[in-house]
Write a structure and sequence with these properties.
Blueprint: H1 22-53, H2 59-71, E1 74-79, E2 90-93, H3 100-107, E3 110-113, H4 120-125, E4 128-129, H5 137-148, E5 155-158, E6 170-171, E7 184-193, H6 208-217, E8 221-227, E9 231-232, H7 239-254, E10 257-258, H8 263-275, H9 311-324, H10 330-340, H11 343-351, H12 384-389, H13 408-433
Parallel strand pairs: 1-8, 2-5, 2-7, 3-4, 3-5, 6-10
Antiparallel strand pairs: 7-8, 7-9
Helix pairs in contact: 1-2, 1-6, 9-10, 9-11, 10-11, 11-13
Length: 437
């Protein structure tokens, strides 16, 4: 199944607790889980001290830590480690929890570069290493290559996705820096399950600390780590192609999709998800059902969302849309803005005829410049194409076809070209209006 824009909403958990009858189980367990979390906090301090005192490459250290981790409810199971390629110094793994690198450290000594802008204390406490990522890609790769050139050093564990997912739908697009260190990498797929109390390992907007506390709260969290055959970069194969091939291999092993979404797409989706409920009509109560996610806007126009203000910001966005599309009724624009929270997304939806334009009366055009042409208001029930063709634009003369296509395919191509030109012109007009270019 090909990945679609709507699927990005399914790649991350929106709720910590399970829905339905399992919610009652979580409520009944809560007092016991709270007590268990308090006891495990003190036990975790002892484990942390042991991990700092014992030498990292020591087998005794790993055995002691795995036993003590059982008391914290963390169980690590692995397969294929004995058959791994000893020449591969770089491990690439999918990212499903804040303790993925800890689980891998229980199996084999590893070092994880800090690429998430953590503070010095958190970096040290969580077991990350400073490879110079803050200084740029070149510094990061230079330090990683120098580390891998020493045989006595632990393996380098990387998460090429750059962000966590729920591991149930798809993998984020892999960054190429993990595949630029060495021509051979060791893929590892990680799964996490909580069989007794179904509480999500990660959630949208969750922090590192809260995710750690929930690990202490639940009875048990089981990590499954599967070592796949090592992968070598083929001759003439680019780093992007190498990363894509490994991503597809790991996605096939997990029985999920290798999606084209990046960690930046996740950040944009999370921002929209967290800010969407803040826009409401004056006389309407908060929506009782979740609104389906909208695709990320085109990068041509920066999104202006109503994340800080409520109704005044909504009305401001309505006026901004009407400056570009003066024929569209305010009620239609306002209705779509409550779903998108974004000016350019609403403009795109209207121009691409994703909005029902028959819901209200169309406004008469307001002349805003000397080249604007006065057009009578459209009758109710007018088609979307007729309304959109009347939108004034500096390049409006380019929207008409020079000849009538002889075949249906030629006429459809002509329509698509005019539609694309109209969309680009509206965007350019909007950006010129607000001084964005």
């Amino acid at each position: 199944m090909a990945a679609t824009t709507a699927e990005i909403s399914r790649m991350f958990s929106s709720h910590r607790f399970a829905r339905g009858k399992k919610t009652i189980l979580c409520v009944l367990y809560f007092p016991l889980g709270l007590l268990l979390a308090i006891l495990r906090v003190f036990l975790g301090l002892h484990i942390f001290i042991v991990s700092c005192v014992l030498p990292k490459p020591s087998l005794v250290r790993r055995l002691i830590l795995r036993f003590m981790a059982l008391l914290l409810g963390i169980v690590v199971s692995h397969r294929g480690f004995g058959d791994r390629d000893r020449s591969a110094k770089v491990i690439v793994a999918n990212h499903v929890s804040v303790l993925d690198h800890v689980a891998m450290d229980f199996i084999t000594p590893i070092v994880t570069p800090n690429v998430w802008r953590l503070s010095s204390f958190l970096m040290w406490a969580m077991g990350y290493a400073d490879f110079g990522a803050q200084e740029g890609r070149e510094a990061l790769l230079r330090t990683a290559k120098a580390h891998c050139s020493q045989n006595s050093q632990p393996l380098v564990l990387t998460f090429p996705e750059g962000a966590m997912t729920n591991g149930q739908v798809g993998l984020l697009k892999y960054s190429t820096w993990s595949f630029s260190i060495q021509p051979v990498v060791q893929p590892v797929v990680i799964k996490v399950s909580r069989p007794i109390i179904p509480i999500s390992v990660e959630t949208i907007g969750g922090s590192l600390v809260t995710d750690l506390l929930w690990f202490l709260f639940v009875p048990v969290s089981i990590f499954y780590c599967r070592f796949l055959p090592s992968q070598k970069q083929n001759e003439g194969e680019s780093e992007e192609e190498f990363a894509k091939r490994v991503q597809e291999l790991m996605a096939k092993e997990l029985n999920i999709e290798a999606t084209p979404f990046t960690n930046a797409d996740k950040s944009e989706y999370v921002k929209r998800y967290l800010h969407r409920p803040q826009i409401q009509a004056p006389s309407e109560s908060p929506p009782s059902r979740s609104v389906p996610p909208t695709p990320p806007p085109s990068p041509t126009i920066p999104c202006e969302s109503a994340s800080n203000n409520h109704l005044p910001e909504l009305e401001k966005m309505v006026r901004q849309v009407q400056e570009v599309l003066p024929h569209i009724a305010e009620s239609i624009i306002r209705k779509d803005l409550r779903h998108t929270s974004c000016v350019d997304a609403t403009i795109t939806n209207i121009l691409e005829e994703k909005v029902d334009l028959n819901d209200g009366e169309f406004n008469s055009p307001r002349p805003s410049s000397s080249n604007a042409v006065q057009t009578p208001s459209e009758p109710e029930g007018a088609t979307a194409a007729a309304v959109l063709q009347s939108v004034q634009s500096p390049t409006a003369t380019k929207f008409s076809s020079t000849s009538f296509g002889k075949t249906s395919s030629a006429r459809q191509l002509s329509y698509q070209e005019r539609k694309a030109a109209l969309l680009e012109s509206a965007r350019r007009h909007y950006m010129e209006k607000h001084g964005m270019i």
